[in-house]
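Service request form, structural biology core

Requester: graduate student, group of Dr. S.
Request type: structure prediction, single chain
Budget code: on file
Notes: please return the result as structure tokens.

Sequence provided:
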Amino acid sequence: MMNCTRMYTLLFMVVCCASGRGQTKTAPAKDNPKSETKGVITHNGPASITRTIKQDRKGNLWIAAFDGMFRYDGKSFTNVISKVSSARFFSVLEDRKGNMWFASIGSGVYHYDGKSFRNFTTKDGLANDRVTDIYEDKTGNIWFGTEGGASRYDGKSFRNYRMDDGRPKQLQSVLNVTKSEKLIDNDVSSIIEDRTGKFWFGTRGHAFVYDGKTFTQLPNNGKPFTNVRSIIEDKKGNIWLGGTDGLWRYDGITFTNLTRDFVGYVYEDKKGNIWTSSQTARGWVLSRYEEKSLSNKTPTVTEIDPKTGMLFGISEDEVGNIWFGARGAYRYEGNTITDFKSNTKTNMIELTDRKKSD
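Core staff response, request fulfilled:
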């Protein structure tokens, strides 16, 4: 199951959009005139595709779904944005000031301070109105992964980055990069800043590291990683990548493959276990890679089949339960799984719990 390859350098001189090539839009976004302070309270959670679940500093869970943006306080769900927007929501972030950011497919991003909403779109400088990821860097800039590149917002204006601008023609030929692949490279699905200050970008095309001047395309046995959906840095400083090429760990020197199954999301829990949502020959499963075995050639992996079909974002609540998105929001409690779409529980005996040692 494991393959190791030593990272080598393949540098692209990539610049941002426009001269430099950053694109800056200084016009501030206006408050949404339809902003509401109260959402719609319901006993059930989202009923549609649920992409991302995050817990805020107060212990509330925020759930980005195709039928709204939900806040769960432990008792009831509130669709906070239902009176403002009917967009499909993909991602959510709480920034260091306690404000919430919501990423939508087609309506840009929404900033929510607990009282009112502010909508940012391409008219305000955002790279694309189809936004799938939100990230806050160490200096407080908010990054957005969009289908048209990455946007960085400093609180006043946007600067946009595209992964295909400035790519040397001879390099395009060597890598057999087609026009459609170039466009896919700008469909940014994941952004993180590592402890050294470098930024990692996962795209529907390839994966890149950005040091503030140049982008380095990550190699995978001499070929680019493809369709990288999720990137995280764990507590020890290892970088994890999930996508079409499976699950990979980078320790600063070597890339190690843990599975070739498609991985859509990667998450580290409080104990240091790595969780993934992945598609196997048996269907979609939650996989937990045990922290104590991660350095082994054959790490212990527990696979849990919630029988929900396609799986998406994963998160851990304050008491250690694992939440995940599917068609609705679910909570894995070790012995049962709760479906908040219908408020029903499934006993663990009805699940598939496998341990792999291959």
